Amino acid sequence: MIRTLTIRPATAADLDAVTSIHADARATYYRGHLPESDYAGPEELARARTGWAGAIERGAVLCAEPDGEGTGIAGIAAFGEREGVMVLTQLHVAPAHWRRGVGGALHAACVEAWRAAGTTTAVLEVFDRNERAQAFYAAHGWTPDPDSPRSGDHLVLRLTLAPQPE
Predict the structure, then answer these.
(1) CB atoms inside a 10 Å sphere around CB 77
(2) Chain segment 62-112, per-residue pLDDT in tens
(3) For a designed S-S bond to 137, which of 11, 77, 80, 142 qualifies (C-beta 3.0 to 4.6 A apart)?
(4) How crowded is residue 44: how many other Cβ atoms within 10 Å of its Cβ?
(5) Would you list the domain boundaries of the chain?
(6) Do the strands 85-93 and 121-127 form a parallel or antiparallel pair, or are they unpaired?
(7) 139, pLDDT greater than 90
(8) Distance CA 3, CA 156 (A)
(9) How far apart, in whole angstroms, are the C-alpha atoms of residue 21 and residue 94?
(10) What is the CATH number of domain 5-160?
(11) Rounded Cα gap, residues 56 and 10, in angstroms
(12) Rounded to two decimals, what is the model's pTM?
């Protein structure tokens, strides 16, 4: 477990680290299931970098930094609203920081932001073979979306949020 962790909005200076964590995470769960060009080819990496740059500019990306470790960013999360529902589009933790509380801290920060914005429902898609992520989300209260349980080779999960305590 990391002793202290700072969760903060990503800045343009974080783009390389954010893109790297994203690429490493996708390689971890897609390797052996999809052609490498689908998740790690030059065109895909350029597309991802452009997407992350836009998300950072919109203020839709959070970074987790372990305090005092000098290791840089350990995890990232991105979210945005789509058709009146909050969507967790990405939550990745660098493999060196797995099982150390980084993902849980990022998730808690997202939920706090969603509650502050008055959000009552959030959804996400998770690769159907990414059992580690599915277990993480289940432990944090996510359940299969009854309205749309699948999207291709991804499961759709839903989180219903209680109102923010006053």
Answers:
(1) 24
(2) 999 887 554 567 888 888 888 778 999 989 898 888 888 999 999 999 999
(3) 142
(4) 15
(5) 5-160
(6) parallel
(7) yes
(8) 33
(9) 6
(10) 3.40.630.30
(11) 6
(12) 0.85
